[in-house]
Amino acid sequence: MKNFNSSRVFSNNVKPVNPEGDYVLYWMSINRRLHYNFALEYAVAWANKLDKPLLIYEGLSCDIPWASDRFHQFLIEGIVESVEFCQKNGFNNFSFVESKPGQGSGLVDELANNACLVIADEYPVYIIKPYNRMMSRSVNVPWYTVDSNGLIPMKTSDKAPYSAFIFRRNMQKLFLESFRNPPQKDPLINLKNRSSITLSDEFLNRYPKLSTTTDIPKLVASLQINHEVKALEISGTRQAAWKQLMDFAENRLLKYAENRNNVENGAASGLSPWLHYGKISAFECVLAALEMQPADWSQDKITFQQGKRDGFFGGHPAIDAFLDELITWRETGFHFCHQVHNYDKYESLPDWAINTLDKHSSDPREHIYSFEDFEMARTHDPIWNAAQRQLVREGIIHNYLRMLWGKKVLEWTEHPRIALKYLIELNNKYAIDGRDPNSYSGIFWIFGRFDRPWGPERPIYGNIRYMTSDSTAKKINLKLYLQKYSTF
Predict the structure, then answer these.
(1) Alpha helix (H) residue ranges in 431-478
(2) Sequence-ordered alpha helix ranges (H) in 8-121
(3) Could you tell me if 17 and 142 are in contact, meaning their C-beta atoms sit under 8 angstroms apart?
(4) What span, in angstroms and rounded, lies between the C-alpha atoms of 241 and 75?
(5) Contacting residues for 303 by C-beta, under 8 A, at least 6 apart
(6) Three-class SS of residue 209?
(7) Cα(33)–Cα(149) distance, rounded to whole angstroms?
(8) Phi, psi (5° rounding) for residue 120?
(9) Which residues contact 88 (CB under 8 A, 6 or more apart)?
(10) pLDDT tens digits, the chain, 488 residues: what are they?
(11) Separation CA 342–CA 215 (nearest Å)
(12) Which of 141, 229, 248, 413 could make an SS bond with 418 (beta carbons 3.0 to 4.6 A apart)?
C-alpha cells in the first residue's frame, strides 16, 4: 500500500481481493485500540483505496486458554469503550462476547467471506498467530496481519536476538527512523466511506451484539469461564491506560532509575496490563517519556552507543533507564518469539543453559513443592509466599521480586522442566499481563534465556544466575510488603 510502512505488513495468503465484498474487515484481536494503531491505519487505507466502508470487529471467546473473570472483565471494559467511541463518531463496529464455548464458531469466517479482504493483528505468541494462519487458509479473501506491537518492526530482525545487548544495538540504529514514522494518532479520521453496514437479523440472532449498556460484572459472572480467578479493581479501558501513563510520566518517571526496585513507593510505570492488551501503544509511552526531557534536549542528542545501555537518548538518565525497559527489554521478547516458534518450550533455551540444567537436574533438593503448594503459597519462605499472594490478589508481582519468585520455583521442583511448566501456568493463570512475549522473556530468563553463564557452578542451578531470599531482603525493605501480603 502506497505511503504505508511495509515492514509492518505480513501477507498470510495470496488470494485476490473480492471487489464485490460489502466492506473491509479489521479484526482487532490484541492491539485493542482505535488510536496509534498501524493495523487500523492499514485497514483505513485499503477501505479508501476500494471506496468501501470499514467494519471493526472485536470479539472474546470463552474457551481461550486461561479464560477467567480477571481477563474477561478487563477486556470487556475496553471493548465497551471502543463500541461507545464508534457509535458516537459514526464508525461501523461489531463486538461479540461468547457466553459458552463454541457459540462464536463460524463468526469470523462469515464476516471475512462477506468482506473484500481482512486486516488482523500480527502477534508472535499465544493463540493469535496460529489462529491467523488457520483463518488465512479457510477464508476466500486476502488475510493481512500488521505489526503494531512496538517501536521497532519485528520484520527488521532476520534472526532471534539472543541477548538484550544484541537487540539494543539494532534498536539504537533503527530508533530514529522508527520514531519519525509513527502510527497516526487518529487513523479513523481519514476514512472516506462511512456508509452504515447492516448485518442480517439471522446473523445477529446467532451472534448477539455486545451492548454499551451491559452490566459488565453481571455479564462476566454468566460466562462459562473460570470464576475462581477474580477480576481486578483496575479498569481495562484506554482512558485508564492514558491516566496511568500521565501519572507515571509526571510523578515517577524522573525517579525511575533509582527507585524502580523499591517495593514501597517505587517508581515502576505499572503500564504492562494496558500494553499487553494494546489499549495504549509503545509509541505513546516513548513520546510521553521524551516530553519530560530537559528543556534544552533535542533529538540531535540521541547518539549511537554500540549497544551500551546508558547515554543513548542523551538526556535525563531516568528516561534512558525507562526507555531501555520499554523498548529494549520488552521488544527483545517480541522479536525473539517472532523468530522462534517453540518460544515457550524448554528446548528453546540456549544450549549452555540446557546443558548445565540437565547436568544438575538430579541434584538433591532441600525442599520440593507441588503445583498446588506453590499456587496456595505454602512454602517455607515468607518472601516467596508474599510474592505469590500478590500475584493471585493483584495480577502482578513487583518486578524485582518476580525474578526471585521464578528462581525459587526452579530450586524447589524435581526438574527444571517441571519448574518451567509451573511458572508458565502460574503466570498465565494469574498475571494480568501474562500470555505475552515480555512475560515469556521473564520466565525463561530464570533458566538462562537472554543471560550468560555465571560462576561458580552451584547445585541445582549449575551456571544459571543464582538468587536468594536473604540477599533480596538485604537489598529491599520488605517489612510493609510482607505485612500487606501475609494472607490472600
Answers:
(1) 437-445, 469-475
(2) 38-50, 69-89, 107-113
(3) yes
(4) 13
(5) 311, 312, 314
(6) coil
(7) 12
(8) -135, 175
(9) none
(10) 555 778 999 999 999 999 999 999 999 999 999 999 999 999 999 999 999 999 999 999 999 999 999 999 999 999 999 999 999 999 999 999 999 999 999 999 999 999 999 999 999 999 999 999 999 999 999 999 999 999 999 999 999 999 999 999 999 999 999 999 999 999 999 999 999 999 999 999 999 999 999 999 999 999 999 999 999 999 999 999 999 999 999 999 999 988 888 887 788 999 999 999 999 999 999 999 999 999 999 999 999 999 998 999 999 999 999 999 999 999 999 999 999 999 999 999 999 999 999 999 999 999 999 999 999 999 999 999 999 999 999 999 998 899 999 999 999 999 999 999 999 999 999 999 999 999 999 999 999 999 999 989 999 999 999 999 999 999 888 999 999 999 99
(11) 40
(12) 413
**Contact (CB, 8 A) for 73 and 223:** no
Task: Identify the bridge partners of residue 95 per DSSP, sorted by sequence position.
Answer: 58
- Measured CA to CA, the distance from residue 257 to residue 323 in angstroms comes to 11
By CB neighbour count within 10 A (0-12 exposed, 13-18 middle, 19+ buried), where does 20 fall?
A: exposed
- What is the spatial order of strands in the sheet that 54-60 belongs to? 9-11, 143-146, 115-121, 23-27, 54-60, 92-97
CA nearest to 153, candidates 353, 45, 24, 8: 8
Domains of the chain: 1-148 (3.40.50.620), 238-339 (1.25.40.80), 346-484 (1.10.579.10)
Cell for 224?
462459562
